[in-house]
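> call design_seq(struct)
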Protein backbone atom coordinates (compact mmCIF):
# COMPACT_ATOMS: atom_id res chain seq x y z
CA UNK A 1 0.00 0.00 0.00
CA UNK A 2 2.83 2.37 0.88
CA UNK A 3 4.50 1.57 -2.43
CA UNK A 4 1.28 2.32 -4.31
CA UNK A 5 0.91 5.68 -2.55
CA UNK A 6 4.54 6.47 -3.36
CA UNK A 7 4.03 5.72 -7.06
CA UNK A 8 0.84 7.83 -7.16
CA UNK A 9 2.66 10.77 -5.59
CA UNK A 10 5.57 10.29 -7.99
CA UNK A 11 3.19 10.33 -10.97
CA UNK A 12 1.59 13.52 -9.69
CA UNK A 13 5.07 15.03 -9.35
CA UNK A 14 5.56 14.67 -13.10
CA UNK A 15 2.16 16.25 -13.73
CA UNK A 16 3.06 19.19 -11.50
CA UNK A 17 6.52 19.50 -13.05
CA UNK A 18 5.06 19.66 -16.57
CA UNK A 19 2.53 22.31 -15.58
CA UNK A 20 5.37 24.32 -14.04
CA UNK A 21 7.10 24.13 -17.41
CA UNK A 22 3.93 25.46 -19.04
CA UNK A 23 3.95 28.39 -16.61
CA UNK A 24 7.64 28.94 -17.22
CA UNK A 25 7.10 29.23 -20.96
CA UNK A 26 3.71 30.94 -20.68
CA UNK A 27 4.55 33.34 -23.52
CA UNK A 28 5.05 30.50 -25.98
CA UNK A 29 1.98 28.73 -24.62
CA UNK A 30 -0.05 31.85 -25.38
CA UNK A 31 1.42 31.97 -28.88
CA UNK A 32 0.57 28.33 -29.63
CA UNK A 33 -2.90 28.60 -28.13
CA UNK A 34 -3.59 31.72 -30.21
CA UNK A 35 -2.30 29.98 -33.32
CA UNK A 36 -4.46 26.93 -32.60
CA UNK A 37 -7.57 29.07 -32.12
CA UNK A 38 -6.93 31.06 -35.31
CA UNK A 39 -6.13 27.92 -37.31
CA UNK A 40 -9.32 26.23 -36.11
CA UNK A 41 -11.38 29.31 -36.96
CA UNK A 42 -9.81 29.53 -40.41
CA UNK A 43 -10.68 25.90 -41.16
CA UNK A 44 -14.21 26.35 -39.83
CA UNK A 45 -14.72 29.47 -41.97
CA UNK A 46 -13.89 27.38 -45.03
CA UNK A 47 -17.10 25.48 -44.35
CA UNK A 48 -19.05 28.69 -43.72
CA UNK A 49 -17.77 30.19 -46.98
CA UNK A 50 -18.31 27.17 -49.21
CA UNK A 51 -21.44 28.62 -50.84
CA UNK A 52 -19.54 31.76 -51.81
CA UNK A 53 -16.63 29.68 -53.08
CA UNK A 54 -18.64 27.17 -55.12
CA UNK A 55 -21.51 29.43 -56.15
CA UNK A 56 -23.93 26.62 -55.32
CA UNK A 57 -26.37 25.85 -52.54
CA UNK A 58 -24.53 24.02 -49.75
CA UNK A 59 -25.56 22.89 -46.29
CA UNK A 60 -22.98 25.09 -44.60
CA UNK A 61 -24.17 24.24 -41.08
CA UNK A 62 -23.39 20.57 -41.67
CA UNK A 63 -20.07 21.39 -43.31
CA UNK A 64 -19.06 23.66 -40.44
CA UNK A 65 -19.77 20.88 -37.93
CA UNK A 66 -17.94 18.36 -40.13
CA UNK A 67 -14.79 20.48 -40.19
CA UNK A 68 -15.16 21.48 -36.55
CA UNK A 69 -15.30 17.88 -35.33
CA UNK A 70 -12.22 17.03 -37.38
CA UNK A 71 -10.35 20.10 -36.17
CA UNK A 72 -11.09 19.65 -32.46
CA UNK A 73 -10.61 15.89 -32.38
CA UNK A 74 -7.30 16.11 -34.23
CA UNK A 75 -6.11 18.98 -32.07
CA UNK A 76 -6.82 17.00 -28.90
CA UNK A 77 -5.34 13.72 -30.15
CA UNK A 78 -2.25 15.39 -31.60
CA UNK A 79 -1.55 17.16 -28.30
CA UNK A 80 -1.83 13.86 -26.44
CA UNK A 81 0.52 12.25 -28.95
CA UNK A 82 2.95 15.18 -28.84
CA UNK A 83 3.27 15.30 -25.08
CA UNK A 84 3.69 11.54 -24.68
CA UNK A 85 6.05 11.02 -27.62
CA UNK A 86 8.24 14.00 -26.68
CA UNK A 87 8.66 13.22 -22.98
CA UNK A 88 12.31 12.29 -23.61
CA UNK A 89 12.89 15.31 -25.85
CA UNK A 90 11.59 17.59 -23.08
CA UNK A 91 14.02 16.03 -20.61
CA UNK A 92 16.90 16.74 -22.98
CA UNK A 93 15.80 20.32 -23.67
CA UNK A 94 15.55 21.03 -19.95
CA UNK A 95 18.79 19.24 -19.11
CA UNK A 96 17.02 16.98 -16.60
CA UNK A 97 17.29 13.65 -18.40
CA UNK A 98 20.05 12.27 -16.18
CA UNK A 99 18.23 13.28 -12.99
CA UNK A 100 14.95 11.77 -14.19
CA UNK A 101 16.49 8.48 -15.28
CA UNK A 102 18.51 8.17 -12.06
CA UNK A 103 15.55 8.94 -9.80
CA UNK A 104 14.11 6.02 -7.78
CA UNK A 105 10.96 6.08 -9.90
CA UNK A 106 9.87 3.45 -12.41
CA UNK A 107 9.62 4.45 -16.05
CA UNK A 108 5.98 3.36 -16.01
CA UNK A 109 5.28 5.92 -13.27
CA UNK A 110 7.05 8.54 -15.37
CA UNK A 111 4.84 7.63 -18.33
CA UNK A 112 1.67 7.70 -16.23
CA UNK A 113 2.44 11.21 -14.98
CA UNK A 114 3.25 12.43 -18.47
CA UNK A 115 0.08 10.84 -19.84
CA UNK A 116 -2.16 12.42 -17.21
CA UNK A 117 -0.62 15.81 -17.95
CA UNK A 118 -1.12 15.34 -21.69
CA UNK A 119 -4.81 14.50 -21.20
CA UNK A 120 -5.46 17.55 -19.02
CA UNK A 121 -3.39 19.83 -21.25
CA UNK A 122 -5.10 18.61 -24.44
CA UNK A 123 -8.55 18.91 -22.89
CA UNK A 124 -7.96 22.48 -21.68
CA UNK A 125 -6.63 23.55 -25.09
CA UNK A 126 -9.56 21.96 -26.91
CA UNK A 127 -12.19 23.44 -24.57
CA UNK A 128 -10.73 26.94 -25.08
CA UNK A 129 -10.89 26.54 -28.86
CA UNK A 130 -14.45 25.21 -28.69
CA UNK A 131 -15.50 28.12 -26.48
CA UNK A 132 -14.14 30.68 -28.95
CA UNK A 133 -15.75 28.95 -31.93
CA UNK A 134 -19.07 28.71 -30.09
CA UNK A 135 -19.06 32.50 -29.65
CA UNK A 136 -18.71 33.02 -33.41
CA UNK A 137 -20.81 30.18 -34.82
CA UNK A 138 -24.27 28.87 -34.04
CA UNK A 139 -23.71 25.15 -33.49
CA UNK A 140 -26.78 22.94 -33.76
CA UNK A 141 -26.08 19.82 -31.68
CA UNK A 142 -29.70 18.81 -31.26
CA UNK A 143 -29.15 15.46 -32.98
CA UNK A 144 -25.78 14.73 -31.40
CA UNK A 145 -25.18 11.58 -29.34
CA UNK A 146 -22.76 13.14 -26.88
CA UNK A 147 -22.37 10.04 -24.68
CA UNK A 148 -21.57 7.74 -27.59
CA UNK A 149 -19.18 10.29 -29.10
CA UNK A 150 -17.39 10.64 -25.75
CA UNK A 151 -17.01 6.86 -25.58
CA UNK A 152 -15.35 6.85 -29.02
CA UNK A 153 -13.04 9.69 -28.00
CA UNK A 154 -11.99 7.92 -24.78
CA UNK A 155 -11.15 4.75 -26.69
CA UNK A 156 -9.26 6.81 -29.26
CA UNK A 157 -7.33 8.54 -26.50
CA UNK A 158 -6.08 5.17 -25.21
CA UNK A 159 -4.90 4.19 -28.68
CA UNK A 160 -3.02 7.47 -29.12
CA UNK A 161 -1.38 7.08 -25.72
CA UNK A 162 -0.09 3.70 -26.87
CA UNK A 163 1.04 5.15 -30.20
CA UNK A 164 2.77 8.01 -28.38
CA UNK A 165 4.68 5.64 -26.08
CA UNK A 166 5.88 3.65 -29.08
CA UNK A 167 6.94 6.86 -30.84
CA UNK A 168 8.76 8.07 -27.69
CA UNK A 169 11.37 5.38 -28.36
CA UNK A 170 12.61 7.35 -31.38
CA UNK A 171 13.90 10.44 -29.48
CA UNK A 172 15.46 8.04 -26.98
CA UNK A 173 17.43 6.10 -29.60
CA UNK A 174 18.07 8.94 -32.05
CA UNK A 175 18.93 12.10 -30.07
CA UNK A 176 19.54 14.23 -33.17
CA UNK A 177 16.62 13.08 -35.33
CA UNK A 178 14.13 11.35 -33.05
CA UNK A 179 11.82 14.33 -32.50
CA UNK A 180 11.70 15.05 -36.21
CA UNK A 181 10.73 11.44 -36.86
CA UNK A 182 7.79 11.64 -34.45
CA UNK A 183 6.50 14.71 -36.31
CA UNK A 184 6.75 12.81 -39.59
CA UNK A 185 4.60 10.04 -38.09
CA UNK A 186 2.08 12.63 -36.92
CA UNK A 187 1.98 14.24 -40.37
CA UNK A 188 1.33 10.90 -42.08
CA UNK A 189 -1.49 10.10 -39.64
CA UNK A 190 -3.00 13.54 -40.35
CA UNK A 191 -2.91 12.91 -44.10
CA UNK A 192 -4.46 9.46 -44.17
CA UNK A 193 -7.03 9.73 -41.37
CA UNK A 194 -9.63 11.98 -42.98
CA UNK A 195 -9.33 14.86 -40.55
CA UNK A 196 -10.78 17.42 -42.98
CA UNK A 197 -12.22 15.13 -45.67
CA UNK A 198 -13.66 11.63 -46.05
CA UNK A 199 -11.15 8.82 -46.43
CA UNK A 200 -13.00 7.84 -49.63
CA UNK A 201 -11.47 10.81 -51.52
CA UNK A 202 -7.94 9.46 -50.98
CA UNK A 203 -6.25 7.47 -53.76
CA UNK A 204 -7.29 3.83 -53.84
CA UNK A 205 -3.87 2.61 -52.69
CA UNK A 206 -3.96 4.94 -49.69
CA UNK A 207 -7.40 4.00 -48.38
CA UNK A 208 -6.36 0.60 -46.92
CA UNK A 209 -3.48 2.36 -45.13
CA UNK A 210 -5.99 4.80 -43.62
CA UNK A 211 -7.68 1.82 -41.94
CA UNK A 212 -4.49 1.23 -39.97
CA UNK A 213 -4.74 4.67 -38.35
CA UNK A 214 -6.68 4.84 -35.06
CA UNK A 215 -7.55 8.46 -35.86
CA UNK A 216 -9.66 7.24 -38.80
CA UNK A 217 -11.97 5.34 -36.47
CA UNK A 218 -12.11 8.17 -33.93
CA UNK A 219 -13.09 10.73 -36.56
CA UNK A 220 -15.66 8.52 -38.28
CA UNK A 221 -17.20 7.53 -34.95
CA UNK A 222 -17.24 11.09 -33.63
CA UNK A 223 -18.86 12.39 -36.82
CA UNK A 224 -21.40 9.59 -36.75
CA UNK A 225 -22.36 10.48 -33.18
CA UNK A 226 -22.14 14.28 -33.44
CA UNK A 227 -23.48 14.92 -36.94
CA UNK A 228 -25.83 12.01 -37.57
CA UNK A 229 -26.87 11.15 -34.03
CA UNK A 230 -25.83 7.50 -34.41
CA UNK A 231 -26.89 5.23 -31.56
CA UNK A 232 -24.22 4.21 -29.07
CA UNK A 233 -24.64 0.56 -30.06
CA UNK A 234 -23.69 1.33 -33.65
CA UNK A 235 -20.68 3.36 -32.49
CA UNK A 236 -19.24 0.30 -30.75
CA UNK A 237 -17.99 -0.78 -34.18
CA UNK A 238 -15.50 2.10 -33.89
CA UNK A 239 -14.79 1.63 -30.20
CA UNK A 240 -13.55 -1.95 -30.20
CA UNK A 241 -10.77 -1.49 -32.82
CA UNK A 242 -9.53 1.52 -30.85
CA UNK A 243 -9.54 -0.43 -27.59
CA UNK A 244 -7.68 -3.31 -29.24
CA UNK A 245 -5.02 -0.93 -30.58
CA UNK A 246 -4.69 0.85 -27.23
CA UNK A 247 -4.61 -2.31 -25.10
CA UNK A 248 -1.98 -3.80 -27.40
CA UNK A 249 0.11 -0.68 -28.01
CA UNK A 250 0.47 0.49 -24.38
CA UNK A 251 2.17 -2.64 -22.96
CA UNK A 252 4.14 -3.18 -26.15
CA UNK A 253 5.28 0.44 -26.03
CA UNK A 254 6.30 0.16 -22.36
CA UNK A 255 8.25 -3.03 -23.06
CA UNK A 256 9.99 -1.64 -26.15
CA UNK A 257 10.78 1.59 -24.31
CA UNK A 258 12.36 -0.35 -21.43
CA UNK A 259 14.58 -2.23 -23.87
CA UNK A 260 15.50 0.98 -25.67
CA UNK A 261 16.28 2.70 -22.35
CA UNK A 262 18.73 -0.02 -21.38
CA UNK A 263 20.39 0.21 -24.80
CA UNK A 264 20.57 4.02 -24.62
CA UNK A 265 22.19 3.90 -21.18
CA UNK A 266 24.68 1.28 -22.30
CA UNK A 267 25.68 3.22 -25.42
CA UNK A 268 25.72 6.69 -23.82
CA UNK A 269 22.85 8.18 -25.81
CA UNK A 270 20.93 9.77 -22.93
CA UNK A 271 23.00 12.88 -22.43
CA UNK A 272 23.55 13.57 -26.10
CA UNK A 273 21.57 16.43 -27.57
CA UNK A 274 21.22 17.68 -31.10
Amino acid sequence: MNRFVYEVKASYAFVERNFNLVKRYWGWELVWLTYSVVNSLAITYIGAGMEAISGRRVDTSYLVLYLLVGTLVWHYLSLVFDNVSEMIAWERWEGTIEYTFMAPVSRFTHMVGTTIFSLIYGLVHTVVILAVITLLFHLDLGRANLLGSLLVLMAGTLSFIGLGIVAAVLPLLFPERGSQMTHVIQAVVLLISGVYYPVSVLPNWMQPIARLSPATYVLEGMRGGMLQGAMTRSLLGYVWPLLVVGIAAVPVGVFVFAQAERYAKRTGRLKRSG
